[in-house]
Amino acid sequence: MVSTFDASRQEDQVFLLDSVPHPAADAAEPFIVASDRRVILTYPIAESDFERFGPFDPDDDPFCAVLFADAVFHRLGPPGDDDLAIHPLSAQGLAGYAVHEVVNSSLCAEIAAVATDSIAIAAAAPARRHFVITFRASTFECVASDYTVIGVFGAGEIASREAFALVR
Predict the structure, then answer these.
(1) Source organism's superkingdom (predicted)?
(2) Which helix (H) or strand (E) holds 134?
(3) Helix H or strand E encompassing 73
(4) Number of neighbouring beta carbons within 10 Å of residue 27
(5) Residues 6+ apart with CB under 8 A from 163
(6) Whole-model pTM?
């Protein structure tokens, strides 16, 4: 089978998502809980988002949990903030400690090209969206049908417990 996908025609466009809390710059690393089609990412939120997503007690260390539904791809790894410039999307505006959506994603196009091997699978699959969240030491990427902020919690342990409960 010959693929009709032409990567040179893709125009990845990176947009900031302001509806999701920004990651904290100097805090613990993110945590992933995943099942076959659900990925939940928990991470500490930036202090600048405390008022917007709070209120919190002074002793709290706020974490959010974000659910990615119908996920077909996810990864957490390099690059981090110090070397974000090597990421293929950095020239399109990928920013540190931020949440992004990639429109006209070449990664989504590659996944769609593979899925067309099975017409039934491709017909049943929901539309795919590409999300990127950047952290101090890593970058999270996910291709899913949608995202939902399932909560902002006063501590990472609570966010992780909620994440585990939702992937069952």
Answers:
(1) Bacteria
(2) strand 129-134
(3) strand 73-77
(4) 18
(5) 31, 33, 40, 42, 65, 150
(6) 0.86
